[in-house]
Amino acid sequence: MNVLIRSARIFSPGSPFHGQTKDLLINNGTIIAVQPVSDQRPADTEIIEGTDLCVSPGWFDLHVNFCEPGFEQREDLQSGSRAAAQGGFTGVLLMPSTKPAMDTKSTIEFVRKRTEGGLVDVLPAGCITVGREGKDLAELYDMFLSGAPAFTDDQHALRNAGVMLRALHYVKDFGGKLMVCCDDTDLSNNGQMNEGPTSTMLGLKGIPTLAESVMVARDLQLLEYSGGSLHLSTISTGESVKLIRAAKQKGLRVTADVAAYLLALSDEELTGFDTHAKVKPPLRAAEDRDALIAGLLDGTLDAISTDHRPLDVESKEKEFDLAEFGMIGLETAFGALNTVLQGKVSTDKLVEALAVNPRKILGLPVPVVQEGAAANLTVFSTSQTWQVTTKSFRSKSANSPFIGRTLTGKPIAVIHNNQYVRIP
């Protein structure tokens, strides 16, 4: 495989070429030259060129659902990997929300073997508790040895503080990473969307921001008591940002991510009862979104995830209160972020949140754009416009509120594991 990327601005912290515009020549999966290389390329070289071309380490998503085993009609490991590549991602952390749940070393090994050597690294997270039921700790250490870099019950928050504390202590002993979503279900109590003026106008039961922030506060207190480390997933409220900021200032080992849709959309999106925009955590008010952006800018929020959650038509095209929560997000993440955040968040910050910090959170090596390095790259444009259609998706599902919209910013190609895909 020979690829020449012409005149691309390099976004790669730690690279001697960071911020510079160069040609990159990749041969057999290795970056062999970062300079003007037009006269050095082999005859069979694939050329990538265009206006406003950029290149960064391959993006990594901390929160995806590929639904296999158990819900393959929505997504499977192969279609999910294709969707990730289509969105510019070369690595993903797979949630264990499967059937059976990924709570044993055999389920972790199943995913690793099924996806080994692919263009996209698919790393399976193990469950914290057996069956994600919040009662008994799963085989955490065995799953860690089998390749699970983190443990989470996905959107099933750990209601039992004792179980949460034992998990924090246990993973601390072997360096595992605990990841939790924060939702006090006694407070969210079957709510359908964010609690506020929009939910009142629509007559829908609301999910108060308190349901998240109460759990964030509890988990941070347990973290301080245990002395371990913790990652908070898909943070959605301004109050949670304040709590995390204060915890970091105290020196607690806490990291956090925010879902791309929470930065791109607000709860006003639901005025038309579009079930594709029914997500959990719910789209929040504009002031919460502003607080999330501020938290990203000052480093309180470390990473951006997609919370890619494929759902079939039968799960979405029904009355709003009966529709399931979730949207797909891999293929539209960068376009939606770049469109909404232009002038607010720099491309450097987006690359840090999409490519660098997710790997740091999991303790993975961060690819660097330099000569002699293995090519793990995302090529993208910040100015190219494109319209989202169902044909844009490689996912099996199409539950996205962005269908029909024109976005600015698009991945152009991904290169990893000596494999290359040009994104149409």
List keywords for this structure.
alpha/beta, 22% strand, single chain, 2 domains, 8-stranded mixed sheet, 424 residues, TIM Barrel, Urease, subunit C, domain 1, 4-stranded parallel sheet
Plain-language structure description:
- The protein is of the alpha/beta class.
- It folds into 2 domains: 2-55 and 372-422, Urease, subunit C, domain 1 (Roll), CATH 2.30.40.10; 58-362, TIM Barrel.
- The protein is 30% helix and 22% strand.
- It has helices at 77-86, 105-115, 140-145, 161-174, 185-188, 197-202, 210-226, 238-249, 260-264, 286-297, 313-316, 333-341, 347-362; strands spanning 2-10, 21-27, 30-34, 46-48, 53-57, 59-64, 89-94, 121-124, 179-181, 193-194, 206-207, 229-233, 253-259, 303-305, 377-387, 406-416, 419-422.
- The mean pLDDT is 96.
| CATH architectural arrangement of the largest domain | Alpha-Beta Barrel
Strand residue percentage = 15-25%
What is the CATH topology descriptor of the largest domain?
TIM Barrel
Residue stretches low in confidence (pLDDT < 50, at least 5 long) are none
Give the distance, in angstroms, between the N- and C-terminal Cα atoms.
19 Å
Coarse shape:
globular
The count of DSSP E runs of length 2 or more, i.e. the number of strands, is 17
Order of helices and strands: EEEEEEHEHEHHEHEHEHEHEHHEHHHEEE
- Give the helix tally: 13
The overall number of domains is 2
Rounded radius of gyration (Å): 21 Å
Mean pLDDT: 96
CATH class label of the largest domain: Alpha Beta
CATH superfamily of the largest domain: Metal-dependent hydrolases
The oligomerization state is single chain
* Derived structural class: alpha/beta
